[in-house]
Amino acid sequence: MWVMVSLSVGHDLVRAAINRAAWPKSKRAFAEWYQGTVLARLVPALPDELRSQRFWDHMDLFEPEHFAPIQRERLRRMHERFPLGAPFLVYDTTNYYPFIPTFNSRPSLPQRGKNKQKRADLRQISLALVVDEERGLPLYYRCYEGPVTDVVAWGASLQEMVGQCLPHTVSPRLTLVLDKGKVSHANFKALTEAHFSFLAAIPAGWVRRLSQVSLKEYHPLALPDGRRIKVYCQPHKRLADIQGQLLVSFSPTFYRQQVRTLDLLQRKATQRLLQLRVAIQQAVVRNRPRTENAVKGEIAQLVRHDRLKAFFSPTLHLQHGRVQDLSWQWDGRKKRAIKHRDFGKTVLFTDRQELEPQRMVLAYRSQAKAEEMFRISKSRRPGLWWPASHWTDRKLSVHALSCFLALLLIRIVLLRLHERNLSVGVELLTERLRGIHEALVVYANGAAQRVITERSPEQEALLAALDVGSLAEQWGHRVLHA
Predict the structure, then answer these.
(1) Within this chain, do residues 38 and 70 fall inside the same structural domain, yes or no?
(2) Are residue 135 and residue 166 in the same domain, yes or no?
(3) Strands 125-132, 138-145: pairing kind
(4) How far is CA 11 from CA 49, 78, 456, in A?
(5) Do 15 and 128 share a domain, yes or no?
(6) How many structural domains comprise the chain?
(7) Inside any domain, residue 395
(8) Is the domain of 292 the same as that of 363?
(9) Long-range pairs for 461-464 at CB < 8 Å and ≥24 separation?
(10) Of 17, 36, 64, at which residue does a domain stop?
(11) Rounded to 5°, angle at Cα 212 from 211 and 213
């Protein structure tokens, strides 16, 4: 016999996270979705408990000081199930765009800024995320104002992590992995004072002489995936008053990617310069030639990438201070020098002098795990973040918390599949799992039984890997087999 319960704030938050992980619905569609899942029997609730207004009544009880205890308790339970040991933790940031009108002054989190999805026409919310290197589990998140730069946001994130979230009892020193957009001399000092170790990519300009060492001085290094790179190490290097070691890695794959990117940028710039040249000539024909400053401003916009400017040389043909024509040259020798000097290289600095070169490279490459979490959160199916139709900072903060919990649930499922040598994308995973149905079979004598219907071979593999069959049998189901 099922007993109706009154849904608590925690129930509603978990319900929202499960919905986000499975197939996001609006809060108004929650009730219909909930009644169509097994949740309706595990945690039965009256229809009034499932109304969208009831959900937001609960979420309105959240205050800013409530989020930190939730983070700490969640992290404690995660550590019990997935001991961290002495980990590297990857820190990265991204942003999302909500569809909030520009002149709606109620929220302060969404603001205009440089959007990573090229939606500069919309306001944005930024998100900092920490995942562990070994499993890619999301451990910590922080929402903050859209236009704050990564290097500035890092200070507030570090202070919050030290004061609230990351368990210093796990190891003597946690090691944070950062890309070069998050680093500064001040941030390195702050990490040291907070008793964090770090492994960071730094701008080559900080150690220009080291980064320009000839590749003949590099040593080959084989990675576990079979790839081969070259590295040049300089132990006992002092940077920002911190004693550590530097490593410059050269990847042929990365080199080729950067060369292709530069070639593409050059082709696009050439096409736009040709269009500008035609516009200049047409202006002359109409006896309205452009001024020198105006054309120089347009050229600066078309060739604004630093590496393009390094080998680009324009010539303006003037008459009485007005531009009559435009020509340009790309210096191939300078371009080759840029490629040979800078491309394919990553400069790493760490205060852990005992780290081997291979360990440093692998730890830095674990940033891919954070990037994977961002890709999942931004996908339209299942669509963890979208839609985010909320208009206040409190609602947006609750939305971010439910999305983070959904991301954690998805990652745990992917880990379970990985342990059983199953690899499947999130979109295909949710589609196959949603295709597993239960049916109520009523017999002639009036008896009834719930059964898990027959499945495809792919669904059967997922059922076994996630142990759904055993769980269903505990709930009184019978699992049909082909």
Answers:
(1) no
(2) yes
(3) antiparallel
(4) 11, 19, 33
(5) no
(6) 4
(7) no
(8) no
(9) 461/422, 462/417, 462/422, 462/424, 462/429, 462/432, 462/433, 462/436, 463/436, 464/420
(10) 64
(11) 95
Full domain range(s) for residue 453: 435-479
Q: Does residue 403 lie in a domain region?
A: no
8 Å CB contact between 76 and 101: no
Convert the pLDDT of each residue in 367-392 to its tens digit.
999 999 999 888 876 667 876 777 78
Q: Cα angle vertex 480, ends 468, 447, to 5°?
A: 105
Tell me the per-residue pLDDT of 280-309, one tens digit each, with 9 for 90 and over.
Answer: 999 999 999 999 999 999 999 999 888 999
Which element (helix H / strand E) includes 31?
A: helix 30-35
The pair of structure tokens assigned to 343 is: 């491309």
In a domain, 278, yes or no: yes
Place of tokens 């933790």: 89
Is residue 412 in a domain? no
**How far is the C-alpha of 232 from the C-alpha of 223, rounded, in Å?**
15
Question: What's the rounded Cα separation, in Å, for the pair 413 and 351?
Answer: 35
| 215 plus 279 within the same structural domain | no
**Residue 456 corresponds to which amino acid?**
S
173, 232: one domain: yes
Q: Are residues 13 and 152 in the same domain?
A: no
CATH number of the domain at 101, please: 3.90.350.10
* Backbone φ, ψ for residue 113 (5° rounding): -170, -170
H/E element, 326: strand 322-330
Angle between helices 52-59 and 393-419 (to 10 degrees): 100
φ/ψ region of 451 (left if φ > 0, alpha if ψ in -120 to 50, else beta) reads beta
CA atoms within 13 A on the CB side of 206: 19
Choose among 274, 230, 222: nearest CA to 251.
230
Are residues 468 and 348 located together in one domain of the fold? no
Q: What distance in Å separates the CA atoms of residue 31 and residue 14, rounded to the nearest whole number?
A: 14
| Percent of residues, the chain, with pLDDT higher than 70 | 94
Lowest-pLDDT range of 36-40, 310-314, 469-473: 469-473
